[in-house]
Design brief:
Elements lengths: L4 H26 L7 E4 L6 H10 L3 E4 L2 H10 L6 E4 L8 H7 L2 E5 L2 H14 L3 E6 L16 H5 L8 E7 L8 H21 L8 E3 L6 H6 L4 E4 L1 H4 L6 H4 L5
Parallel strand pairs: 1-8, 2-3, 3-4, 4-5, 5-6, 6-7
Helix pairs in contact: 1-2, 4-5
């Protein structure tokens, strides 16, 4: 039975409260300030009318995996002051769409995309926050730079002045073995520490976007500053995660 708008509002608000409390608890366990962790609600497959309700419940930032879905929702919900983050792989020919509406791009792993996105942003007179995606699990099916390739990659980024480099993003291995998941997050901290020493001036790597509904507490323990949470807020998706994220499931 489909919930009415009021029930959906209460459902989302209750889930948000639960997730935020778990973030606070994870921060306390790690000796961190809860204000240092930003919650990014992931809205892929959630219909636009439900996102209106989510906005009313307090979701003013939304993360989308697919550029087409993000673009369509941003148009339908253009009357709301939503900050849109694109968190999935971007093809060069789709950069023009992202440049028009997104506030943030969390999956940069190609200089071709950097160049095209920068050009399109210049045309729009805009700039956006950008995270470099790292393949911390080493899975061939996943996008992202290998950890050992990140340093050389970021040396090229200062020339793209519309890209405000803020940090790193990763998808950990999808596993019930917490030790294997934690290894991915630890590797990200190591890459971050290296970049703080070796990255060009003007690039910031203070942000670590890592952790999703199933592992965000582990990610917080290892230094995540952004956690991308979808199902814990909006409920299970109609298709398994492997449909949306390569290398999962």
């Amino acid at each position: 039975m489909e919930l009415n708008a009021e029930q959906q509002f209460n459902d989302i608000q209750n889930n948000l409260t639960t997730v935020k409390q778990r973030i606070v608890d994870a921060c306390k366990k790690a000796g961190r300030d809860p204000a240092s962790v930003r919650l990014l609600p992931v809205t892929k497959t959630v219909p636009a009318e439900r996102l209106r309700i989510a906005y009313a419940a307090g979701c003013h930032e939304m993360g989308e995996n697919k550029i087409q879905e993000a673009r369509e929702k941003s148009e339908v919900l253009s009357d709301l002051n939503i900050k849109w983050a694109v968190i999935g792989h971007l093809q060069t020919n789709k950069a023009k769409y992202l440049a028009r509406f997104a506030n943030e791009f969390q999956a940069l792993d190609s200089l071709k995309v950097a160049e095209e996105l920068d050009k399109r942003l210049q045309n729009e007179g805009r700039s956006i926050d950008v995270y470099v995606q790292v393949n911390s699990s080493g899975e061939a099916s996943k996008f992202g730079l290998p950890p050992e390739g990140v340093c050389d990659f970021v040396q090229q980024l200062p020339k793209y002045s519309s890209l405000r480099i803020k940090g790193l993003m990763t998808l950990a291995i999808f596993s019930s073995d917490h030790a294997r998941v934690r290894e991915c997050f630890v590797k990200m901290r190591e890459v971050q520490a290296m970049l703080r020493q070796e990255a060009p001036d003007g690039l910031s790597f203070d942000e670590l976007s890592m952790g999703m509904s199933g592992d965000y507490e582990l990610a917080i323990e290892e230094g995540a500053t952004v956690v991308r949470v979808g199902q814990a807020i909006f409920g299970k998706r109609p298709l398994p995660d492997s449909h949306y994220w390569p290398g999962m499931g």
